[in-house]
Amino acid sequence: MKKIQALCVAALMCCTVFFGCQSTASSPAASQSTKAPDSATSTSAPDKSNANSTATSSNEDDKWNDMTDEELYELAKQEGGEITIYSISSRMPRTCEAFMEAYPELKAVATDFDQNEAISKIEIEAKSNNINADVLQCKDAAGEIYYDFFPAGYLENYYPTDICSKIDPELMKYGMPFYTGLNFWYYNTQLHQSAPVDNWWQIIEKDENGNNKYNLVFENPSSNDTYMALYCHMILMSDEMAQAYEKAYGKPLEYTYDASQTPGVPENNAGYEFLYRLSQCKLTFIGDGDDIVEAVHGAGASGMDTLGFCSAGKITNRDDNGWNIAWVDHLDPFVAVMNTNYLYIVKGCDNPAGARLFIRFLMGGADGNGPGFKPFTKEGNWSIRSDYTNPNNPFGVKDINTIPCDIEGIYDFFLDAKDFWDYWLSKSPAK
Fold this sequence. Notes:
By secondary structure, this protein is an alpha/beta fold. The protein contains 16 helices and 14 strands.
């Protein structure tokens, strides 16, 4: 994903338009219609050079966007098929059950994949012209879908006007947002009455002997694009990271990494400096979030002060298992990058109306209170709708210092940052 590659993709995308919600959308298609609208014009991602411009939609796309549940249901029954959902969530089958209760003449089946499996299947099916899925639910932390799948014509977006009016347009730049998660550092509540850190630089502090102040437990960013995207945002926000260092220690940041060792890496970038210092810490890599927070809980007995980094949703172990864990919910300059889940229509699917009806249902319907979203309301998930508040969360996602994922901003140097991390981790004396 080098700059020249991104520019080529952007040039290709200039020929098409990314579709969003419009207040001037055309009137809905009649419910008696026997043929679903052609959705071929709604697939393109925005031109990278004009990503902040207001998205527009064609008249054909408007027919989809303004259709009611009833209109889509009539069309979906005529399609006569089974709505297939590829999802990265094990909760999706519960929504399928509720959907079939609400629409008894339809069938919805969800298959649970991990991120890479889901998008790989979409690509294989598209290239073989053997499309099985109708809906894809996944993340796009590194921009693979935004920059590769849309230009290739594998997916298209669906922006229902009434629902989109309740969503921040900034969150719809890269697709139809479903909900967002956050990744937090966890601390042990037996050892600390409140979070022991409030600044990213404090997490990687060392004592006079060069030993970690905290035992750091998390998944290796090399194996998780969401985590690497976090550090890419630090690189993007170099000035803010430098200011956070000075705020914590009262002196300017000293740069110690050697940029010449890895191509594409600039000198004197505070984000790269943080990533370098982190790579030189003694680290414990664990791939499972439950195991990570269990390690934090166990720190109370061992006396080893541990911080663990994983999904905010793992906080449920506090109540389910009685573990002594809590979120670090404030860090300078930001606590977390919004880890947004997106919903896409599979281009060329057998059930385009049914797929859109399912997405509306999954989003909670017109008012946001429908049963489709209920399985996803656990603590640590946040709806992106302004008219819905998850009662299980102690605060809204905008009540703390989170930032949206800037796919465009990090895309050009994502692989450079990953190479930088891998190189210096391999050279760490703490391994």
